[in-house]
Specification:
Layout lengths: L10 E5 L2 E8 L2 E8 L5 H4 L1 H4 L8 E7 L1 E6 L4 E4 L4 E4 L3 E6 L4 E5 L11
Antiparallel strand pairs: 1-2, 2-3, 3-9, 4-7, 4-9, 5-6, 5-8
Pfam families: Cupin_3
Length: 116
Amino acid sequence: MEIKSIDKPDDRRDFPRGHMEVVELPGLMFGRATFEPGWRWTESVKDIAGTDLCEADHRGYIVQGRLRVRMRDGSESELGPGDVFTVAPGHDAWVVGDEPCVALDFGGGAQEYAKS
């Protein structure tokens, strides 16, 4: 058994208008992302990642706030509190509204997120 607190993460990655805390356990890479109003992946993380779109594979849960996601093919969806989601590589995302969006990522997308 191994237990860690997200309040004492193994890694914290800061980027414009947000941050991600990451905890790594055997078989699990867990991230908690906080995106402030005005955050957009292509404006806040694109230069860090070095790709035109987010190429992480996300599986997660929205705790608060709203997030809009546009896939490479142009399809879009909006996520909100209580939504459990999968988002494949090749997407942009942005905060909708004036409330921060807090998302939990269980799918390994946190492993390389916002790392150069």
